[in-house]
Amino acid sequence: MSPTSETARDGRRLVIVESPAKAKTIKGYLGPGYVVEASVGHIRDLPSGAAEVPAKYTGEVRRLGVDVEHDFEPVYVVNADKKSQVAKLKSLLADADELLLATDEDREGEAIAWHLQEVLKPKVPVRRMVFHEITKDAIQEAVRNPRDLNQRLVDAQETRRILDRLYGYEVSPVLWKKVARGLSAGRVQSVATRLVVERERERMAFRSASYWDLVGTFTTGRAGDAADPESFGARLAAVDGRRVATGRDFGSDGRLKAASAQVLHLDEETARGLAAALADTAFAVRSVESKPYRRSPYAPFRTTTLQQEASRKLGFGAKRTMQVAQKLYENGFITYMRTDSTTLSETAVTAARVQVKQLYGESYLPDAPRTYASKVKNAQEAHEAIRPSGDRFRTPAETRLSGDEFRLYELIWMRTVASQMKDAVGQSVTVKVGGRAADGRDVEFSASGKIITFHGFLKAYVEGADDPNAELDDRERRLPQVTEGDALRAEQVTPEGHATKPPARYTEASLVKELEEREIGRPSTYASILGTILDRGYVFKKGTALVPSFLSFAVVGLLEKHFGRLVDYDFTARMEDDLDRIARGEAKSVPWLRRFYFGDGEVDAASAAHAGNGDGDHLGGLKELVTDLGAIDAREVSSFPVGDGIVLRVGRYGPYVERGEQRADVPDDLPPDELTVEFAAELLAKPSGDYELGTDPVSGHPIVAKDGRYGPYVTEILPEDTPRTGKNAVKPRTASLLKSMTLDTVTLDDALRLLTLPRVVGTDAEGVEITAQNGRFGPYLKKGTDSRSLETEEQMFTITLDEALAIYAQPKQRGRRAAAPPLKELGADPVSGQPVVVKDGRFGPYVTDGETNATLRKDDDVEALTPERGFELLAEKRAKGPVKKTAKKAPAKKTAAKKAAPAKKTAAKKTAAKATAATEKTAAKKTAARKTTARKTATPADSDAAEQPVSEQV
Fold this sequence. Notes:
single chain; alpha+beta; 6-stranded antiparallel barrel; 4-stranded parallel sheet; 20% strand
């Protein structure tokens, strides 16, 4: 191993990477003179709250973490959870002769490296070590050829970070004030949400059109075989020379498009009449058109195409795909997974061609290597396409991987190998069949076929499709070998009805594709963007489809009307161009940020930063937009007319419909396009859930039963003058209905009985009170912190002290005594041999073989879960090993205290001081911290304690 020029051959080098897994892999490729340590991600960032900002900063700087008045200087702080790691890195650096920063070779990786240099302040030479795959050769090559930090990449990443901070921290509070607390806005996430909302609006406005045609089955009259079938199906194409209308001829309003005015629109009656008129028709082949078919291989994966294919073929979400790919990269199985490039190195091309020859034969290998040009505008972070690592590709079986990692590696391996194979070739054929009906009308049917004579790359890989009805590239449709004039007999002619469908909702795969085609955001961030809009409740999944919530309609509506420029697709794309210009050194970040934030009338009108708002309002900067909020009517932005006087409103506790004094909750998981006038009227017609049961004879308060968002319950109505806030506040007694009760059957006596809970059963010998209570998981006893389950709900009212003490005298059972029957049985596990079942646990469904439990992933469905998937989840869980318990750190401190005898007394005093609640200073600090937290949640207007946006778009 040859050292760099600045370091002596026998020097000691510190290599810093982002993750422990990456550090472990790289450590095995370096000699004894290297220490490899992880930074564990970012060690320094903009403050997440005002409390983290150093005391010298005040006002806007404290709120934003950016000094907008002084060249947008960011305030960086070392993350609280990284301080110990920074101390460790400094300690290791003290013994090093050179520092090698080996973070990922993209903007974010370059920024991490820069922050490490700034925080560690090394006094030894610092070099940047870059590689796009973690193999022995690649790592040793990177050590031999280090470079300096790329300041342009650092500046570009910093500009993006500041831009996203300003966007998130200025726009999110508007959503808190006008829509609901806890919401967030982001430069790309808000635009992505708008795309999903607009698609739902299209579906809501869509009007279906009905149309009919005929399907005929024709036979040649001769015996057929697989290569020359006897019969084939064809669809009616024209009547008397007029093309028959198909779905593409209709608009979203359910009417024929202007361009399709001359087509023939068949209704059911006409179609059935025509079918009857063709009962005895003699048909003949009118034309046969044959064309050569050729399909070239798909380019190797880049980040977005990997996410799309993993979604289509494996059912992975973008986040899951990137997590698995990260593991494969860090463990040396694939190249870097955040890339815009589709190019392969010469080494990779050679490895792929070798495997093509070995696995498929020389006839599948093209004469010259294939090259692929990137189609991504401003392609960056481009190292190489995502491919198996090394100069020889390991087959999936050779990797000894399992579960998700095996499936994703296999996908990458197949795609890479296929990219260096020959084209698929064949013939596509169109046959036209004609005849004359009994009423004299001339009809023409059409059939299309495809024959693949050489499968080429399709032997290795076939790309999936977003449309489940789409025909894949390797699908053949064989037609009989006929020639013009051949007579045919119609075995049957059947009328068939159709209805146009609304545009399909986005899936994760299709939304990623749409964002990339519109050049919005960076491909490396799409997984986090999708995760954000799902986590925030802006979007939820129905199967694989992304459905916008009513909340997202309110948020997008507000942004479109009052911040149109910020969610304009073209503006966002042009802003991405501007950021790439800064990365290339063609523009300066500070003037650009100034125009974006403060506005500048002198800037070129073509610049993204000067684009007007979507609703034509003023051309000021972001600061001006968020300053005057008086024009935003909070009720208006959260209200949507349904029809017939019914209005949907997005309230603090969720969506509801309203008509006059009537009001009804709308299910959170109802797709917006399913909220019709009829369904809304049904919701309003249902009983409100407020049942007056009578009056409590003791308190005199009315008792009512209600249907709440978390289930039915009973409560008392307190007098109007009852204090509801402050230290004298009185809360009404409330209790959930038992499982055996319903709102229709609950009585006043039932309610009064429920309101006695929790019931004091008595006290034990030590004076500790025992109570019977109704909890989330059923009835139980509670004594201090010790809880015991009860068999029935009735026991809460009848159990005696002696019976309770007898239960506590028994050893505590772990979990519930009566196990619920499994949701599904999957068969015997191939590893343990034990039966595997799916059960419903406290945190959701999981698979178990009695020894190992594995929670189902978000994308897994109990009904659709296969035995193979269940075994795979268990195998992954076993591979991870037992969960490490952080509580083991405590004994280490005690041991240290014993060794350091002189410090024992002092340490004991400190421990005692920490544990003593009477320490006024500590108690005061804790109290102040609680008060600060409360203020942060309740009063975002307070600059020192303002709640910051839940997330920023990165």
